[in-house]
Amino acid sequence: MNYMANLRITKEFRFEGAHALLDYDGKCRHIHGHSYRLMITVEGVPSLREGDPKIGMIMDFGDLKDVVETHIVKHFDHALLLRRNAPLAEEISGAYQNVLLLDFQPTCEQLTLHFADILKKIITLPNSLYSVRLYETPTSWCEWTK
User: Which residues are catalytic?
Assistant: First the structure.
């Protein structure tokens, strides 16, 4: 068995969110919601260090869960995502809780890039973030890979 093989682990997360796309020419210009599915894949070599409680693992699934829940899910779950310069964005965020004003259009593509940027800084050597896949609907997703 090749114990030095590069392997990948993936954990799935789910959260609810709403957004509106500023200046978009389709239905998504209106505030609407999604049941997002987020797949995070980490790449690395399993630990072979004797005495390591995580021996044989790239990363503990529980540790990956903690990282993603803390840095992404708890902020984005049941949030309304609006571009900062959207009409009434400041008023809406002042009137309601859990409104995130973003410096980018809250598309599936831009959210995927944003999540990758967050996680690349946290998941570090000897492991690395390999991919972020965000499903906006059951049949539509965006994927970032390193």
Answer: 28, 78, 136
What DSSP letter does each residue of 45-89 carry, written as one string? Answer: -----TT-TTTT-SS-HHHHHHHHIIIIIHHHTTEEEEETTSTTH
- The hierarchical CATH code for the domain 8-145 is 3.30.479.10
User: What pLDDT, in 10s, does the model give residues 105-135?
Assistant: 999 999 999 999 999 999 988 899 999 999 9
Could you tell me which of 97, 104, 107, 105 has the C-alpha nearest to residue 77?
Answer: 97
Going from N- to C-terminal start, the domains of the chain cover 8-145
Distances 98 to 8, 27, 61, 101, 134 between C-alpha atoms, Å: 33, 23, 28, 10, 20
**51-63: pLDDT as tens digits:** 999 899 999 999 9
Query: Which pTM was predicted?
Result: 0.94
DSSP state of 64: H
Give the integer Cα–Cα distance in Å for 133 and 127: 18
